[in-house]
Design brief:
It is built from three helices and six strands. By secondary structure, it is an alpha/beta fold. The longest helix is centred in the C-terminal third of the chain and has 16 residues.
């Protein structure tokens, strides 16, 4: 029998809608379009809490889901310095509607979005004693990117 202990994790799924474009993309993604994004956030802990959980799924929804709802849901994620004149128009229109765009310091690809979400999820969840170990971000039902903890 191995002396190695099993690692227990839990995963919470979060969904939202957002628009973006990928400047300099070789194909259709250079144009403004939207996605139904899905993130699967996997957490682990040294030990389970007194109720037998890594973390309550509702806490992940409240903290990370709340961050997504405020910053990414029903708005646009736009690369800072996007040269398309529509970027400024979209930002102005969304701000007037109470949904400011989210400015990202890189092209808003699935890879860069999941990296940003990994940074944010760690900041929000790790003070609660859980480790964010992986996030898979689905941009479409067939395409995803994954962030894993180093």
């Amino acid at each position: 029998m191995s002396s190695r202990q099993a690692r227990l994790t839990c995963t919470r799924r979060l969904e939202w809608d957002a628009a973006h474009r990928v400047p300099r993309h070789e194909g259709r993604c250079a144009a403004w379009h939207g996605h139904r994004y899905v993130a699967e956030i996997t957490c682990a802990a040294e030990s389970l809490d007194d109720r037998g959980r890594v973390i309550d799924f509702g806490v992940i929804k409240q903290l990370v889901g709340g961050w997504i709802d405020t910053r990414w849901d029903h708005t646009a994620v736009i690369m800072t310095g996007d040269p398309d004149p529509a970027a400024a128009v979209i930002a102005e229109s969304n701000a007037a509607s109470g949904r400011p765009v989210y400015w990202l310091d890189a092209p808003p690809t699935a890879e860069n979005l999941v990296a940003e979400l990994g940074r944010v999820a760690r900041e929000l969840l790790e003070p609660r004693g859980v480790e964010v170990v992986a996030i898979r971000l689905w941009e479409t039902p067939n395409c995803s990117a994954e962030w894993t903890r180093d």
